[in-house]
## 1
Amino acid sequence: MSGLVVRDLRVVFDGFAAVDGVDLEVAPGDIRFLIGPNGAGKTTLVDAVTGLVKATGSVRFGDDELLGRPVHRIARMGVGRTFQTATVFEELTVLQNLDIAAGAGRGALTLLRRRRSVPVSVEEALETIGLAGLRDKPAGALAHGQKQWLEIGMLLVQDVKLLLLDEPVAGMSHDERDATGALLRVVSADRTVVVIEHDMDFMRSFANTVTVLHAGKVLSEGSVAQVQADPAVQQVYLGVS
Amino acid sequence: MTARYSWRAGVGFAVGAVLLFAVAPVALSDFRLSLLAKYLCLAMVAVGIGLAWGRGGLLTLGQGVFFGLGGYAMAMHMKLADAGPGEMPDFMQLYGQLDALPWWWRPFASPWFALPATVLLPMLVAFLLGSLVFRRRVRGAYFAILSQALAAAMVILLIGQQGTTGGTNGLTDFQGFFGYDLDDPVNQRMVYFIVAGVLLLLLAIARQLMLSRYGELLVAVRDSEERVRFLGYNPANVKLVAYVAAAGMAGLAGALFVPAVGIINPALIGIVPSIEFVIGVAVGGRATLLGPVLGAVAVAWAKTALSEEFPAAWTYLQGLLFVLVVAFLPGGLASLVRMVRRRRPPPDPAPVSPAPVVSPQEVRA
């Protein structure tokens, strides 16, 4: 298992520093929550790590430097992400979605043939995310929460070692949140997980460690209790709850 | 499910083969049969567009380029074969600007070069163009405009180089097709059978591509290119395959169009015919396998039939048809079939319970 090490990361849009010199270390197997007010640079940080926006500084995952590589190369190095709005392939079935996610390393001949059987990793992921009964449904027909789970399932079959989840429980019911949190625990058994979240209850229940971002900088870092006790954090973000 | 699919496909291909090889030659006059051969050539282009546009979301508004490359490659070979070894084609002697055959004509004297070139040349051009364009993430309307511009450029080039390309007249007045006299109705019929056979072959290839894992991936790229990238694929390569395949099909169509119709000229490959290819596909149903073929044949047939009656009105009718289909039936006529089919059986009452992912016990553990 590998950890994520970010050093002096900067993302500048037209002179505005959305991420302004962030240092971050996520230990292997950690479930790290990134929190912070709107505009703190959480999503931009994830965008930079996954190659979607240009950044300076250094992002290392294990022994590999990620900055400067194209998106699909970074994905192949075991870094996967989800988006604030679930992006699944709506016209394809749940099974097809997962099968595509499992196949980035497939050769031309495999690609040009039809899928005759379901890959083991896909079968396992279907069970883990609880969508085995819906495998032949078009992903577009899934409920919101199920789409998010499908996305996480796609990361599992993609065999990523670092999951970056952007607000995975937004819009979910209470039960769905708990199920998602439990899923994160299962997933983090042999992977590193970074979650951007606004939901403080969800964070308290499932975070191992927390990083608070504010105006593109790291404001505070530590366990949930430590972060909550930090007066600076209380001032800008959490409030006293 | 897979077994049922392939069983149905087998029957479908058999019915298609009977219609094309047994019914049509008996039911149609020689004249109508040669028209059908022409329509089937246009349908081959449509199969490729269905793949690239319907499944891959690439609005290929310039397939005339690849159709033309295939057509001219074949026509050049037939011209040289008519002229005999070492001779210049008749139109070059007529214009009298040249003393010898241009160097780029020469390889086409050999059928071993010309025949593969009808398919490989368009594919090569598509590969080079696609590599540049898709890697730079040119898509949507920009890609369509670029394709159009290419078609226009090719027409200008052909007309400008009259001495070596035949200019506006194009290449025509062919006598033989690999030693067979093209004036003989029996040989015309043979050309029709080749065209019909090749169309079925291209349909089989397109079907395999659509049902393969690649086909699923292509749809995924069409619907969410960015997401595919985050799964570790390079969408540019995925699109490139569909684009190159469509170009090869258009090239083969152009190559067979020449013996079937007896002419290739800039007016057949420019912007207007390129758009007409797409109209047929849109009318038939771009995302289906058979929709593009039926649409292309129907539109081409309607064009012949209606312009026999009302020569001036056809253009307006065609435009109207396109607008109506795009506005009210984006899935083409094929989606009508699906609508009817969906209405008939009662909806299956499979209640789906939201599945909790992991039980709460596991959470505490």
## 2
Amino acid sequence: MILEGLLARAVQMSTPLLLGALGEVMVERTGVMNMAIEGIFLLGAWAGFTGAYITGSLSAGFLCAMAAGVVVGVLYGWITVFLKQHQIVTGVALNILAAGIGIFFYRVLFGVPLLPLTVEPLRPLAVPFLSAIPVLGPALFRQNILTYLAWGAMPLGWWVLFRTRAGLVLRSTGANPEAVDAAGISVERVRFGAVLAASALSGLAGAFYSIGYLGLFSNDMIGGRGWIAFALCFLGNWNPLGALLGAVVFGIADAAAITLQTSGIRMVPNEFLIALPYILTIAATLARKRFNVPASLGTAYTKEEK
Amino acid sequence: MESPHTEALSLRGITKVFPGVLANDDVNLSARRGEILAILGENGAGKSTLVKILYGMYQPDSGTVSVNGRAVGIRSPKDALALGIGMIHQHFTLVPVHTVWENVVLGLDPSSGRPAGGKGAALELEKLGRRYGLEVDPFAVVADLSVGMQQKTEILKALYRSVSILVLDEPTAVLTPGEADNLFAFLREFRAAGNTVLFITHKLGEVMEIADRIEVLRGGRNAGSFLQGEVSERELAARMVGGDIPSVGETLVRPAGRDVLEVRDLWVRGGRGHHAVRGVSFTVRAGEILGIAGVSGNGQEELADCVCGLARQERGEIRLDGRILPREDPGAVFRAGVGYIPADRHREGLVLDMTVEENLVLKNLSAYSRKGFLREGAMRKNAERLIGEYGIRPPLPGSRTASLSGGNQQKVVAAREIEAGRKCIVAVQPTRGLDLGAAAHVHRMLAAARNEGRAVLLVSTELSEVVSLSDTVAVMSGGEIAGIFPRESADLRTIGLLMAGRKGEPS
């Protein structure tokens, strides 16, 4: 029973990591790091909760979360792609802004309630027959809609990136923006578009924590998971399927922490389990030997001028 | 029969100004179908600017471009491609980690009717390759290909878009002779199909071999238009470098003295592993400026880098005042009394975010610090003295170097290096990007150093600069010294021929 619960939870907990990492892979392939990802997760969680609480509709909540992601993406993309400012500095600034702004508007809207406000989170949808398979069935086929979508999005993302015209443009932009420019495509537009798409995905990922899973919002609910999605892009070698593999590992670690905490088993200190995903991030980053880093990653593209 | 439709391309009155530089000044140019037009000129003659305007990478300040008799506005490479204009850049615009076919279909207009998928594109590429002698494996990764194959990929990219006007910017600079022959064979084939080629070069031999017509540019202006067969190499060389002897700088105040810098049989490898400097020998005496002329990329910068300890000396020997100069140790060379004004002052000469007084002591920190603390008083005094002597504006030691004009930034570098170069000064492109007034100032600084009895090695691709400033003129071509003359007997036509890789008459 514990194993079944653990697996189901691992699949569930990998959902936001998948969405965030997929967006990050796409945008980094164009040469831009979405350094605002942690802040977008948090604002997505807040906007998703607020939208769902006010309208009473989870779908509206998820749309609000994506919109919040896009708003941050517009700001980040405008500053880094068009104004060509430093990506890390800009990202850090936006993350600090996001950390304050979510809770600020939460209090403006709802005051400081004695008990946290809640909404009904997403419900699992069992796939007929398949969910009856022992152990694996409930893990893979008794999940909520967002989890199915996230898992489906990874192979789809791989296909887009490596098998379509748009994917070729994305990859070329990161590997040699001059080539894209010479082919008559605007490097800035490609990058800005990718930032917006990645930000929407990250906003959606953040909303998973508030309305996809817990049904409430608190300002520390992301707790660095945006950065894990960010690291998964590196670990997955800028490949959606690689990121999927990494997300499963982190999903298991996250689920193990929660499962063991709630089951009362005291094999290892709780703090260790909570820290486990972060320890794994560091270890896995160190363990990788070769990276397919996009050659222009982190640098703004300026057309050749005299 | 001559009809207006045979004119594939025409540029009228093209003018383009960059800050401080008039790159193109009322340039006219036209090319017909079935014609190879060579655009010949020295570095800085405005060739590249002109074709970048044609390809939509720059916008002209005035003038019109017509394609097939119709005036067009080319705002971007996309517009150029839509008009059937393809460009082969000097530095390829390929994605090295992708395959040949992926590079070819990148950005392909979906309405072109050409397949964008791997298999379809590969078939088409093989067909094109056979037709034009440009066989490249469509599934090879570009990074694994030789430079010649990469260029073929670039050309295939253009052909895949059915261009009828192909612009090549110095296409043979990176090729072996065999690869160049293949390229020429292709260009003839392409011309025979009724297409137009614009071939940009500074090599006379290529012009004589491949061009139907030749347009010479000099200093951003038209300097003659010729049909093949109507003109000799000597005439072209003269048009390229300009007929008149440039105004002569200050004359030598006293005869040159002892040998200061002696270079013997020097060999240096360039960035791509080839021998960039091939057995060069010369001597610079006290009170002499030795100017090295030549088209860029013929080993001059590697030579200067090596003398100053920044490049590995594979063979040969460099002596300063009779003593072997330390190898690959720029600090020791500097302390031995050799100042270096590098070609790229922003990258190698200055820290733009630091102040003028900091930049002025950058290479000599030990003299301006004590126990790890900077001696600010001494730094300030040094800066005030140099600012006064070299006329650096604004005369504020604390101003940020980036806020200075290009000319004043160069004065900062020159002031520091001339101060340090007690015995010898190596100056590479010392006036690149400067306006006339600032250039004259730098020239006066170098002449003054010479007059004080120092040895000056000047490297420049501006022939007029070399000839007007130097006491002795050397020409470098293909990594070798092609000729060396006292200024009085330097003949511009001969120098022009030597620069263009032709043997001149014995001097």
## 3
Amino acid sequence: MASTEIMTVNMGPQHPSTHGVLRLVIELDGEIIRKITPHIGFLHRGIEKLSEHRTYHQIIPLTDRLDYLAPMSNNLGYVLAVEKLLDIKVPERAQTIRVILAELTRLKSHLVWLACHALDIGAMTVFIYAFREREKVMEIYEKLSGARMTSNYFRVGGLSAELYDDFEKDVREILDTFPGYFDTYEGLLTKNTIWLQRTVGNGVISAEDAVDAGITGPALRGSGVNWDMRRDNPYSGYEKYKFIVPVGEKCDTFDRYKVRFVEMRESVKIIRQALDSLKPGPILADAPQVCYPPKDSVYNTIEGLIHHFKIASEGFPAPVGEIYQAVEAPKGELGYYLVSDGGNKPYRMRIRPPSFCNLSAIEKMANGGMIADLVAVIGTLDIVLGDIDR
Amino acid sequence: MAENHRAIVKLREKFADSVLDVKEFRGEITVTVKKDNIVAICTFLKDSLNYNLCSDVTAVDYLGSEPRFMMVYNLYSIPHKDRLRVKAPVEESDTVVDTVSTVWSTANWLEREIFDLFGITFTGHPDLRRILMTDDWVGHPLRKDYPLQGPDREPYQGRLS
């Protein structure tokens, strides 16, 4: 018997399959992983600290930069939190548009997950295809808000602007074409022998361990926990839509892959229902002390201009109190904990990032496996470092 | 309504001496307890009342008031689908809290983050190191007396809101 010794290998922070600036220090016994020490914080921008010095509206663009693959989900969680703190009711049209955009964002985020996950394991075709389809969602983002990634489209109390004219046509085109694209991706992967060998039985974590480790979102449902906040603690009118919450059985990378695929198909169904129920109406709440006035009145009346100026410069005071609002972001539970001291800025804003808690379970999932499988585990966790480091 | 909440009734029964305050705001229940008993309370909440998911652990710095820090645990029960917030005050002279990473392993990284950004230490924590800032960083950025622009710099003269 040859003697063996533990070798320490450094992976990242510049490594294509760590999905950003994640550094893993891995202790190896041959090819077997014995210990993983993640090092994070390379992308820490202090968003929680910055938020304590900005008015409630000025924080929305900061939230775009958390999970930069799903900016509208981050915006949604934040504006819902502030609306809960202020206790204002958002008109139905704004709620429905928010649901449509949040689900488009889920499609966009899951497409990047699929593309990068497949590329990491060696399926390059899927990567090119999925990015092609993601571009269609990005185009809607761009027409809607002027930005492809940092959308900053939602406002406290509603939306920043009415939809553009061809919005419904663009979204319907996505709804009609995407299920066919999903079939194509599944045709390339689901029965592919290499794909199966790399994903079945990889990164197994039991339901109990997953809950204990704080894993949320599709990664948790892949372990068989039937919990989705859109259904169980509905917000923004999700209770009106019918959709299936998929769960896995074998708790491995392949089951999480299947769960995310069903989620994408369900998102298409939710968007279709929401689009069918979309009716004309106001897009901002009737709360003049909080919401920006319509542009027409800002440009043409002195009262409107002063109103706009007051909200843009001073913001609005929020009642003393503390609230926690969570949404089902594409990656899991995204929570905002706001503490208000009655001023126009949050006294403390805590962001509960889904990727942070998901990543903390990596050691449980990859320990004892091969180093080549670690890449598949990182891919299946679907982490974004902007979300982890904040 | 807060007094009838399933967790509050049980906590009042079992940990009558530890419960300091119960509040309801916008339908959310917050219970403030003494920090000495936090591990026993959390274990009870997890084992007997099914608060199996520890959504979040964080802290708030109330600079200028006593006690200065507040630990905040946002808990969720997947079987019952309800939330509970547990808070525990921490004195500035004694910024030590028992770790709950033995109850929920999520708390491991979350408590490291609090240690990093607030300087609260956790007894019994398996791996208490800085997590977001570099190992040689001085100070705790989320404390209210830590300047926004960082230490040893002129205060920012531009306009911040």
